[in-house]
Design a protein that fits this description.
heterodimer, A: mainly alpha, 67% helix, B: mainly alpha, 8 helices, 0% strand
């Protein structure tokens, strides 16, 4: 391409009035080996543009698949079950409503007597065993006067 | 839409998203993250995909917004963008090194432009979108695109001229 044409294109380029295809022409022109000295400085610019357009991303795209979200739901469900389970099993046992109350005072008296008798009987049985304690006392008195 | 179809669809413009993100965020790692994030968002909303006129343009807009958010978050967090894009050093000829060095200059000049101009030059000169497409992606009108494009290009030219004449930017 003629030099004057290139200069005209450059002027248009810096005014932002070139078309895409004209810019392509410029790029092609300036990636050549030899360029007139007064245009040398634009070489870097257009070469830079060509070079930059070849840079690529190196990381591969990893899409989160649907499976992962399904597992997340399992986790949520499990924790709900766990917490629910803890609350259900930890409830204190309900107190027994039947306290053995008697409606008739006479029967109540009889029953109380019966129970008190039973208690005293056990007490007496227990006390018989205490006879041996007396022996300790006697033996002690023999030695310590 | 199945996973495979989605990946084939997005592979067409995935690199463009990445390059735009890299232009705005500078760091390569962050740009990778941004790309992933945008594509995942797109995947999650795949049921609405049929409603979009142009999925690619839509994804570009998403990337732009995502990067703006990131940049804003950085400003408020008072963090600096750290970029450690070390090139893998292959044994190369002196000339190649010099050439790459001067290309890096262009990159540096470009990264010093305001975000909008940077983005428009990226979309136009590197990705070769036309002005109406860019206007749609960025949500501005075509005249604004053309003006910003011209300003950005002229700024780059000035900087290149300085560098060429004095070796400084």
């Amino acid at each position: 391409m003629e030099l004057s044409n290139i200069e005209k294109l450059l002027e248009k380029y810096f005014e932002g009035e070139t078309t895409i295809s004209e810019e392509k022409e410029l790029k092609v022109y300036f990636t050549r080996e030899t360029v007139p000295t007064h245009l040398e400085r634009y070489k870097d610019l257009f070469q830079f543009f060509s070079k930059e357009s070849t840079i690529t991303a190196t990381k591969d795209l990893k899409l989160k698949t649907q499976r992962k979200t399904r597992y997340a739901w399992v986790g949520v469900a499990a924790s709900v079950v766990l917490i629910a389970g803890m609350f259900l099993t930890n409830q204190p046992p309900k107190p027994d409503k039947n306290l053995g109350t008697y409606e008739d005072p006479e029967i109540a008296l009889e029953e109380t007597k019966k129970i008190l008798n039973m208690v005293s009987q056990y007490m007496n049985e227990g006390k018989q065993e205490l006879v041996y304690l007396k022996e300790f006392e006697n033996t002690k008195n023999k030695f310590i006067k | 839409m199945r996973e495979g179809a989605f990946i084939t669809l997005t592979n067409g413009f995935k690199d463009k998203l990445f390059r735009l993100a890299k232009r705005l965020l500078v760091s390569k790692e962050e740009a990778e993250d941004a790309t992933q994030e945008v594509l995942l968002k797109l995947w999650r909303n795949k049921s609405k995909m049929a409603e979009y006129k142009n999925v690619e343009a839509f994804a570009m807009t998403m990337t732009k917004n995502y990067c703006y958010d990131k940049l804003k978050a950085k400003e408020t967090g008072n963090l600096k963008i750290v970029h450690s894009n070390y090139k893998d050093e292959q044994p190369s000829l002196q000339r190649q090194v010099e050439a790459r060095d001067s290309l890096d200059w262009v990159g540096k000049i470009m990264d010093s432009l305001p975000e909008q101009q940077r983005m428009i030059i990226q979309l136009r000169d590197i990705e070769q979108y036309n002005n109406p497409e860019i206007a749609e992606m960025l949500g501005i009108n075509e005249t604004a695109v053309r003006v910003a494009l011209s300003r950005g290009r002229k700024k780059i030219r000035e900087a290149l001229l300085k560098k060429h004449n004095y070796g400084v930017v």
